[in-house]
Design brief:
Elements lengths: L9 H17 L4 E4 L2 H8 L4 E7 L5 E6 L1 H8 L4 E3 L6 H7 L7 E4 L6 H10 L4 E4 L1 H9 L3 H24 L6 H14 L18 E5 L37 E9 L2 E10 L5 H20 L6 H14 L16 E5 L6 E6 L11 E4 L2 E4 L3 E4 L2 E6 L2 E4 L8 E2 L1
Parallel strand pairs: 1-5, 3-4, 5-6, 9-17
Antiparallel strand pairs: 1-2, 2-3, 7-8, 8-9, 10-11, 10-12, 12-15, 13-14, 15-16
């Protein structure tokens, strides 16, 4: 028999469940049904297809469609059953001694309309409420175990940044260089998948783009876009040539053991124009100011406005975080198991930072027809400000 590994420590998993059940009790939610794979992994330790029922108190029940044996071993839970249809969930809950929940929590931020209607039919006497905010808030504050995993991912991100010099050559296409760097990332244990919670958003490793190619706008909620290899992708590296005296943007997410590190560095063969050099230095200044100001209790929207104000004072209001009327309205985002977790350093956000939150801060300047400069690091909220888990030199690397 194949032995499947278990990655999440028992104590870690139990603490997550206790925290969620405490929140359920306070909000009068009788039980939660977890469907989304990332949340399923967070609470159960497995991402196999199924349904996890978490009552307001007591033991959990993991109902697995595929693969049962793997889910049983990976989760380590005592109550794991094989189930062929979600329509059998109510009778399964009753068989294990659970009452029918009067208030049933679902992850309405990620469920499709069809799934919502299905569970309305399955639980006709339950009041379905959105539990996604409570889950996302819990996941926003990382445990020491999670921080340790993200430190390891950040170390791999730094190794990837250092490897650029050994791989890149003038005259390569963006996609050729990306393939070589991605192969090295895989050799370090990169898991390949980068998960995002936002509907219909995808990212493959990240963005490698050179010169004007990095400033091409796209559909992705990101200051950078890129041509991509065809219109069905419409983002990221394409067939643009890497040339001398142009900024080369390497904005990659390293995924290790489920957890992410987001990391941007700028490289160049030869020299960059003075206006791009000054803009990059300005972004480093903004980053340092936020690292000092972003302490527990500071408000995410106020940090955003501070960054906007400083960019404007430097003369970059028209190019900071994109150009035109559709430029993005954030300068940083949380990350963990997903790339778009709480908190968001964004316009009108009122969420206060907490110790243990993780932020990918990414002040960038976009110059159409020239390229992109700026920085991104994975930063941990501490009592004394932001600690950078990614430590490769922030300055432009001359190749």
């Amino acid at each position: 028999m194949i032995q499947y590994g278990r990655s999440t420590p028992v104590a870690e998993q139990e603490l997550r469940i206790e925290d969620l059940q405490e929140s359920l009790g306070k909000n009068k939610v009788d039980g939660v049904l977890i469907l989304q794979k990332v949340d399923l992994f967070y609470y159960s330790g497995t991402a196999q297809q199924g349904w996890l029922y978490i009552p307001e108190s007591g033991d959990l029940l993991l109902m697995v469609f595929k693969d049962y044996e793997r889910a049983r071993q990976e989760s380590g839970m005592s109550r794991v059953v094989s189930l062929v249809s979600p329509k059998e969930i109510p009778e399964t809950l009753l068989a294990f001694g659970y009452g029918m929940p009067k208030n049933l929590g679902l992850e309405l931020d990620v469920l499709s309309a069809n799934q919502y209607f299905l569970f309305q039919e399955i639980f006709p006497h339950s009041n379905i409420i959105d539990i996604s905010f409570h889950i996302r808030m819990q996941r926003a504050v990382k445990s020491e175990y999670e921080i340790g995993l993200m430190r390891k991912a950040s170390q791999m991100a730094d190794k990837l940044a250092a490897k650029v010099r050994d791989i890149i050559e003038p005259g390569m296409t963006e996609i050729q260089f990306a393939g070589l760097l991605e192969a090295y990332a895989r050799s370090l244990g990169h898991q390949g998948l980068i998960r995002m919670r936002m509907w219909d958003n995808d990212l493959f490793y990240g963005h490698i783009m050179a010169g004007p190619g990095a400033a091409v706008p796209s559909c992705l909620a990101s200051p950078t876009g890129g041509m991509g290899v065809n219109p069905s992708i419409a983002q990221g590296p394409g067939f643009n040539l890497i040339k001398k005296n142009e900024p080369i943007l390497v904005d990659y997410v390293f995924c290790l053991n489920g957890y992410l590190s987001d990391h941007t560095r700028i490289y160049c063969f030869g020299d960059l124009p003075d206006d791009l050099l000054r803009a990059h230095d300005a972004m480093l200044e903004i980053q340092e100011k936020v690292k000092q100001e972003a302490i527990p209790g500071s408000v995410s929207g106020q940090l955003y406005e501070m960054m906007i104000s400083k960019a404007k004072a430097k003369g970059y209001q028209d190019n900071f975080m994109g150009t035109g009327d559709r430029k993005i309205r954030f300068t940083g985002h949380g990350l963990g198991l997903e790339l778009d977790e709480f908190p968001f350093i964004a316009k009108d956000q009122t969420l206060a930072l907490e110790k243990g939150m993780m932020i990918a801060l990414e002040p960038k300047v976009v110059f159409p027809e020239k390229g992109v400069v700026g920085i991104e690091n994975s930063l941990l909220v501490t009592d004394n400000g932001l600690e950078s888990l990614t430590t490769f030199c922030d300055k432009i690397t001359i190749l």
